[in-house]
């Protein structure tokens, strides 16, 4: 079987495809190889690929690019099909992500608009082809003129959930490196992304940062991905790169993560989502909400994330309140808000990051709480403003005499501040 056979099976005419093989032996300024650029900085790789010498027909006439990189000189790895259309021709106003120099030596270049296609996406990072020995210097060819055999190094197609050493092997093929091991867990890392693999448990063996509990609904929509129901945290003291299990009112101690199951087809999609969701966009730009233990979040990053109800502040509330609104008893993460008791504008930086200055509330309960139309006594008794009609109280599920459980004495000063502004 050849790569062209795969294109045809995906209903793509090889005559419409340009093959691009990134294989230069010249080391880059930041990354040793283009394989490393692709593996560790996919945005930089795509920008590098989209910038080409001006006027080359092979790139201008072929609207689909099939991209390959070389992990070793004799191993050609498929990294995706791209739609490619010429955007503009001009001098680049950035430095090359690989070389660190001006693209095209400062001369005019073709700058393409590229978009990763869905076809053969499950083969990205997995599929190997044998590039002909008599074309080893070639890096751009018309697919119809070059039938690339699938390599004998092609990995076996795996079906069903990945577990144990098989999962570790698949992660290694995606560029993850083992960084620590215990009897029950293997820690792996790719760039800033850290994951764990359970050695002895087949049920949901991939453990990711607890922040990704917020992606549970997205994971459920993917084929071949399994998440716990109800959504809950996985606790193990050996998850040393992940946050402490912040729930002093509980007997369980240690660190926590989010355990999921995944098959070979879904693994790359999951990894991509993890990397994309390690940052959030705010008006000031992108902010990290997940960071490795050797480069922890700064206070500034924590504050920026907490301001929009994300990051470690939300994670701490998710675990303290079991991922459930204590008023509405709803555990659907997408509608839960990390609500500050003492408002952001009135709190100190330490108070803004203090999980005891927070409650995990459904969106409609959060709106009432934020406007001081409801509040809580220190014993958890719910107080409802007379501004809310009896009819609306019933519709909102605000039962007279209702009491939430789980409050700690460290909540009390913040609740007192909130009650002082309660609209009776």
How does this model look, in words?
With about 425 residues, this protein is an alpha+beta fold. It has a domain at about 5-145. The chain has 13 helices and 20 strands. It has helices at about 5-10, 35-40, 40-50, 55-60, 165-175, 215-220, 265-275, 300-305, 310-320, 350-355, 365-370, 390-395, 410-420, and strands spanning about 15-20, 50-55, 65-70, 75-90, 110-115, 130, 140, 175-180, 185-190, 195-200, 205-210, 225, 235, 255-260, 280, 285-290, 335-340, 360, 375, 380-385. The strands form five sheets. Strands 1, 2, 3, 4, 5, 6 and 7 form a seven-stranded mixed beta sheet that branches. Strands 8, 9, 10, 11, 12, 13 and 14 form a seven-stranded antiparallel beta sheet that branches. A hairpin with a 2-residue loop joins strand 3 and strand 4 (about 75-90). Helix 2 crosses helix 3 (about 40-50). The longest helix is centred in the middle third of the chain and has 13 residues, at about 265-275. The protein is elongated. It starts with a helix and ends in a 5-residue tail after the last helix. The model has no long low-confidence stretch (mean pLDDT about 90).
Number of alpha- plus pi-helical segments: 13
Q: What are the low-pLDDT stretches, counting only 5+ consecutive residues below 50? A: none
What structural class is derived from the secondary structure elements? alpha+beta
Could you describe the largest sheet, including whether it forms a barrel? 7 strands, mixed
Radius of gyration: 26 Å
CA-CA gap between termini: 75 Å
Work out the strand percent. 15-25%
